[in-house]
Amino acid sequence: MLFKPDAARGNTSPFEPAGTVDEDGNYSLLTKGKKGAPAGWYKVVVTALASEPVHSKGPGHPHPVAQSLLPARYGQAKTTDLTVEVVEHPAPGAYDLKLKKTFLLIPYKEGVS
Question: Which pLDDT belongs to residue 18?
Fold first, then answer.
């Protein structure tokens, strides 16, 4: 998971908070080794791969390929529709992310300040 500063909404931070999503779907972020993210608007990039690669079929694809568990649009800042405004005192659930079409909810765990 990556929070990309959204310059179009005024966030010109050079830092990109990054983190992981645990097996229960909770995430936490670090920025420069510290928990949390600086205040501002972010585009959220999320990728998730299947633990077992898919074996491609056909002569042109002899190697296993990682299978994405999420729609491709969430994997790039230019295509994701997930956005978050990090604020000093967020409302409960403010950082829970809902991924469309998969009906997946990623609850905020810790690490966003």
Answer: 97
